[in-house]
User: Which sequence fits this backbone?
C-alpha cells in the first residue's frame, strides 16, 4: 500500500490512519514501484493530477482510493487510474478510510473492475457535499456557529466565552473546518461559508 498526497502533512495524516491496521505496510507512492492499493489525497480529479495513478494502474494493476474536496472530476480519467472509491474530505474518517482501503484490496485481489456508473454516482455525491445542488458544504452545527461568530467579528476569546468551550477546542474546530474544506485562513473560511449560504 502506498500514499500519494499533494501536501506532506496530509500524507502524514493518511499514513498514520492507515497504520492502524497492523497487516498494512504503508509507504510513500512511487509509480515505478508496485502497490496493490494507492491512497491519494488530491484536490482535482483531472488528467494531470491522476496521471501518476494511471501509470501505476497500467504498469502494476494498482487500484486507488481517492480523498478529495471534489472540486473537479473527470470520470474517464478516474476510470483509467483504477479509482475504486472516492471519499470527500468530510467523509474521510479513520473508519471510512480503512473500510475503503479494505474494499479496494478485495477488489484488487479478485481482479474486479469498478463499473463506470459507480464512479459517476460517487462524483455526484461529491458535488452534493460541495454544494453542487445548492446545499453548500457540510458543516456541523458547532462548526457553523464558530463561523457565524467569526463573521460577526468576535475574537477567539469572545467565541470561547460565548460557546463555553476551551481555546484548544475552538482551535480544533477551526482546524477541522479549514482542513476539510481546503481553506487558507479564517477570512477564507467565513467567505466560503457565506458564499455557500451556510451562514
Assistant:
Amino acid at each position: 500500500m502506498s500514499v500519494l498526497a499533494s501536501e506532506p502533512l496530509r500524507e502524514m495524516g493518511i499514513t498514520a490512519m492507515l497504520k492502524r491496521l497492523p497487516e498494512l505496510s504503508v509507504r510513500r507512492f512511487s509509480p515505478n514501484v508496485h502497490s496493490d492499493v494507492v491512497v491519494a489525497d488530491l484536490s482535482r480529479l483531472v488528467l494531470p493530477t491522476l496521471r501518476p495513478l494511471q501509470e501505476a494502474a497500467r504498469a502494476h494493476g494498482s487500484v486507488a482510493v481517492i480523498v478529495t474536496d471534489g472540486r473537479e472530476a473527470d470520470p474517464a480519467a478516474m476510470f483509467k487510474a483504477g479509482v475504486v472509491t472516492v471519499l470527500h474530505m468530510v467523509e474521510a474518517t479513520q473508519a471510512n478510510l480503512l473500510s475503503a482501503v479494505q474494499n479496494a484490496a478485495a477488489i484488487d485481489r479478485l481482479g474486479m473492475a469498478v463499473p463506470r456508473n459507480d464512479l459517476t454516482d460517487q462524483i455526484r455525491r461529491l458535488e452534493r457535499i460541495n454544494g453542487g445542488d445548492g446545499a453548500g458544504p457540510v458543516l456541523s452545527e458547532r462548526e457553523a456557529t464558530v463561523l457565524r461568530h467569526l463573521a460577526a467579528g468576535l475574537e477567539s476569546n469572545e467565541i470561547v466565552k460565548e460557546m463555553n468551550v476551551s481555546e484548544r477546542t475552538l482551535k480544533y474546530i477551526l482546524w477541522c473546518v479549514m482542513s476539510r474544506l481546503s481553506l487558507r485562513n479564517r477570512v477564507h473560511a467565513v467567505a466560503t461559508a457565506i458564499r455557500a449560504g451556510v451562514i
